[in-house]
Design goal:
single chain; alpha+beta; five-stranded antiparallel beta sheet; 5 strands; globular
Length: about 180
């Protein structure tokens, strides 16, 4: 065997050993630590949902989880999330608060309609209010499903309430 092949074989063996031992290349593409943490959160949430309980117990547990997650957020994110939670609960009391990938979310019949992603969650420049396809915000061939949030002015609050109500109205029509 030539020296070149032995080097290649040894290098290949070394790379395989690193992979099997759990060593990670810091530059390797894949999920970020924040994304992996969110996926682990979702697994915990799914296990908790599977445990059962009455609708009222699930709602109370979901709200407690949401308030806990909001309490863990840094200043500006926490202020946005607290106000957003109050707005959504007032505008759509039939939405059930729950966490979704570790984020505050609001669901109808177990399906997430909207959620809040803090800026700190994925080290982003701004927080996001997102709507799932269950929100039925469809308008023509293209429409927004995520909105950047930097502050909640009266106009922004009014727009959010309108979007949440629109999501529920259309969702109840099944369109």
């Amino acid at each position: 065997m030539s020296p070149r092949k032995r080097t290649g074989s040894a290098a290949s063996k070394s790379a395989k050993e690193e992979k099997s031992s759990g060593a990670k290349d810091e530059k390797a593409p894949g999920f970020s630590a924040e994304e992996r943490a969110a996926m682990k959160e979702r697994v915990r949430e799914m296990k908790a949902e599977a445990r059962g309980g009455s609708r009222a117990e699930k709602r109370a547990s979901g709200e407690a989880d949401v308030l806990e997650k909001i309490g863990e957020m840094a200043g500006a994110d926490r202020a946005l999330a607290e106000r957003l939670h109050a707005l959504i609960m007032a505008a759509a009391p039939d939405l059930a608060p729950k966490t979704w990938y570790g984020m505050p979310a609001y669901a109808r019949d177990g399906n997430v309609v909207c959620f809040f992603q803090s800026a700190g969650k994925f080290k982003a420049r701004y927080a996001t209010l997102g709507f799932s396809d269950k929100a039925h915000l469809d308008e023509g061939a293209m429409w927004p499903t995520g909105f950047a949030l930097r502050e909640l002015t009266p106009d922004v609050e009014k727009r959010i309430v309108g979007l949440v109500r629109k999501a529920l109205d259309r969702g109840s029509q099944g369109s």
